[in-house]
Amino acid sequence: MREREAETQAEGEAGSMHREPDVGFDPGSPGSRPGPKAGAKPLREAKNLPTYPGPNKMRDCYCTVNLDREEVFRTKIVEKSLCPFYGEDFYCEIPRSFRHLSFYIFDRDVFRRDSIIGKVAIQKEDLPKYHNRDTWFQLQHVDADSEVQGKVHLELRLSEVITDTGVVCHKLAARILECQGLPIVNGQCDPYATVTLAGPYRSEAKKTKVKKKTNNPQFDEVFYFEVTRPCSYNRKSHFDFEEEDVDKLEIRVDLWNASNLKFGDEFLGELRVPLNVLRQSSSYEAWYFLQPRDNGSKSLKPGDLGSLRLNVVYTEDHVFSSDYYSPLRDLLLRSADVEPVSASAAHVLGEVCREKQEAAIPLVRLFLHYGRVVPFISAIANAEVRRTQDPNTIFRGNSLTSKCIDETMKLAGMHYLHMTLKPAIEEICQSHKSCEIDPVKLKDGESLENNMENLRQYVDRIFNVITKSGVSCPTVMCDIFFSLREAAAKRFQDDLDVRYTAVSSFIFLRFFAPAILSPNLFQLTPHHTDPQTSRTLTLISKTIQTLGSLSKSKSASFKESYMAAFYEFFNEQKYADAVKNFLDLISSSGRRDPKSIEQPILLKEGFMIKRAQGRKRFGMKNFKKRWFCLTNHEFTYQKSKGDQPLCSIPIENILAVEKLEEESFKMKNMFQVIQPERALYIQANNCVEAKAWIDILTKVSQCNQKRLTVYHPSAYLNGHWLCCRASSDTAPGCSPCTGGLPANIQLDIDGDRETERIYSLFNSYMSKLEKMQEACGSRSVYDGPEQEEYSTFIIDDPQETYKTLKQVITGVGALEQEHAQYRRDKFKKTKYGSQHIPELSQRPGAGRTSSKLRLLGTHPDPLPLLLLQSGRPRGGQAGKESGCP
Asked: Which domain of life is it from (predicted)?
């Protein structure tokens, strides 16, 4: 079994996780999809932050999103506010295990120094409590003693020694074996540990050696402590030391980062183990999470630091190997061929889900993966058109058809959207021209005529780039638009414009207009735009939406009189003709893009650290920060964005993309791009970025004929490979490549994972499936008025629908049995205190509690969002773990 470690989507006021690249939206809330609901719940604000100790009182604040202490996202800075509004959305797949999802509020002072105001930390096992709920969290105080992470492997052993005088002495051996996941402080980690036997009247401490440049130190040192008691030896007293001694003594392990600074060494965390763990046995071994140090200096009351509003969506799936899903998957993939389509398994899913979006996301991804998305959408679109009575309302509702097309445009059209709109959006953001045309909102000194001309120029430019981009529209979108056009024209033969409005309701109203309105949600801008630019984009979006709708009464499309007046600029026939020509092109049968192969498409870009490739044998091989760009043609880097490339790697020369072991350079989040002559070593900013780069580089190079099957997981240093010790720099790899999938598999979509998501949805709505079965039975035997409780279901053929429902319930039941068996097996194998499930250290006298179930962290939430992924072994047996605590 593949355990998919969660998707985390947090949205809220001061730092959030959200599915940024979504393209399908509810018309009432363009540009956002926080989860199964169409309306957005973005990161809105922090409130009641403490005042700045100065005459101004205001603060310049930003928020970061962290996995434990690793920053994975940072908002823009909101200046001069104690209640900052961020409006930031962030989505990521989490590639590693973690304990806390944390949000930090920082203040930047006049000297551009950053200080922490407070934080919100949510334990991984508590994330389901806040799933998809707007929640205000109080900011907690942050200091050096509270910021800890990592775990320690500790072994305790108690033995007796008889002295020459006959006195029994209990000797305690404390062995600290290793630590894992310690934080890196200011770019370095040189840890050591102190081991202390502490009690009311004694404190004896000993210290390990310092381990240089590692956050996973291997200590393996043993320290001995004597626990003496004044009694003569006899066999009855063997290991029978007094209760009060046990309750008063503890072993404390403190981790420190050795520092050469005058401020002293930095505290990394501690653990405390009472000696009563040795009551039942003379030895005890366990892993422990490091804990904060309780220094009793909490001077601030809860709420004194303010609060933070978040909406977190976290989903964790357990995905079996592919053969487990065959019955349900095959049933779903036959949906396009079922007559009527309303009796198909995919359509049934849309009927029982609370929101159509819940069903659309995994269905579209599954059908795209197996090349069945166009037949399925064509089938459900034809069925919806046949039920539509008014051509003016065609595809205007939030039906399964509209949501599936939205999701398809999001998945297939993102590069097309960037290529079309990004240059114009960037120019608007940079030029910062005033375009306010509402006389009430004009600022002093602004000219209404000048603003109107600025806005007209922007609208003209964006309108032109859209209407001239038809040849670049992705083929899958064109095939869907063709089926929409044909279905609408056949249904409403007297309406000559319906073949255009059926397509424009998606490409303009649900694709281009939302992207212009909220460019950050489509990664067209890194953050939300400033208020003036946002207003400009709103006015442009309104105009483009009206132009694309081909409405017969343009002025009536606007509620505001100033918009109706502005639209007079575009009342010429050439604009309507341009829209129709564009719609004709993207909805033509068999149309193919002649430029799709030749034209470079920007896939990803950003700053990373690279190690010099060492083209000269004696050249310096240092690390430098560079701006990397990946297109479908080449992978390049330059000093800064916009500079000439310093190095260009053709995609066909990328033989493999793999992680680089941390021990190679004592640096985290490194990966290697392997070429015929050498490997390029790169360090990403964090684990999320590293995974994103590895995934996209692997995908674009997947079809290369000379891809490697083996590689070296470590670097070639000092005349040999660190992994296999081979001396030749051309020696074959010693480990199998992880990206060796067939070329026809789309790496960004996992068919098994999407089928698991659909199973979870069916399972969570089982009561509705059963009610739908009752509705089929009722309609088969009763011809009278339909019962109200069954009226919400679309059932065109009760017998065929009942047959499908029976197959769905059978398939879901079989998978549920497999999941139940997996949970039982996992519970049996769970060992509290193991490396994967460390213990939480306790104070003396606190006793031991067992909370295995709480620490498992499983979350059977059925919502169709999967972000974070812990491991991806293909196939395998049920019950195979991914290695997450």
From this structure: Eukaryota
CA 435, CA 426: separation in Å to the nearest integer? Answer: 16
C-beta separation of 100 from 64 below 8 A:
no
Residue 787: pLDDT band (50, 70, 90) is: low
Domains 370-586 and 602-701+703-736 share a fold: no
Fold exhibited by the domain 370-586? GTPase Activation - p120GAP; domain 1 (1.10.506)
Domain 602-701+703-736 fold is PH-domain like (2.30.29)
Contact (CB, 8 A) for 215 and 150: yes
Residue ranges per structural domain of the chain: 2-140+300-313, 151-289, 370-586, 602-701+703-736
CA-based nearest residue to 145, from 303, 354, 291: 291
* 8-state DSSP, 586: H
pLDDT at 553: 55
Cβ distance 91 to 20 under 8 Å? yes
Most trustworthy range by pLDDT among 2-6, 213-217, 244-248, 585-589: 213-217
What's the confidence (pLDDT) of residue 627? 94
pLDDT tens for residues 290-300?
998 876 555 55
Q: What's the CA gap between 637 and 649, in Å, rounded?
A: 9
Residues 287, 440: Cα–Cα separation, whole Å: 66
Structure tokens at 51: 């005042």
Average pLDDT of span 377-398? 88
Task: Give the residues across from 4 on adjacent strands.
Answer: 317
**If you ran DSSP here, which 8-state letter would residue 621 be given?**
-
Measured CA to CA, the distance from residue 312 to residue 129 in angstroms comes to: 10
pLDDT above 80: residue 69: yes
Amino acid at 778: S
Q: 461: which residues sit within 8 A by CB, 6+ positions away? A: 424
Answer whether the bond into residue 340 is a cis peptide, omega within 30°: yes
Beta-carbon neighbour count of residue 450 at 10 Å?
A: 12
Q: Is the peptide bond before 860 cis (omega within 30 degrees of 0)?
A: no
pLDDT, position 277? 85
SS3 217: coil
d(CA 170, CA 252): 18
Could you tell me which residue, 250 or 13, shows the higher pLDDT?
Answer: 250
224, β-bridge pairs:
173
- 355 vs 229, higher pLDDT: 355
Query: In Å, what is the CA distance from 32 to each residue of 10, 123, 730?
Result: 13, 27, 50
Alpha-carbon distance of 399 to 328, in angstroms, equals: 23
Residue 206 β-bridge partners: 195
- Crossing angle between the packed helical segments 414-431 and 531-549, to the nearest 10 degrees: 130
Average pLDDT of the segment spanning 406-417: 91
Classify domain 2-140+300-313 by CATH architecture. Sandwich (2.60)
C-alpha–C-alpha distance, residues 683 and 94, integer Å: 17
pLDDT above 70 for 43: no
284 or 855: which carries more pLDDT confidence? 284
Q: What is the rounded distance in angstroms from the CA atom of residue 74 to the CA atom of residue 685?
A: 12
CA-based nearest residue to 179, from 169, 168, 188, 192 = 192
Between CA 585 and CA 593 the distance in angstroms is 11
| Mean pLDDT, residues 580-602 taken together | 69
Least confident of 48-52, 95-99, 547-551, 853-857: 853-857
Give the strand pairing for 634-638 and 623-631.
antiparallel
What CATH topology corresponds to 151-289? Immunoglobulin-like (2.60.40)
**Whole-prediction pTM:** 0.77
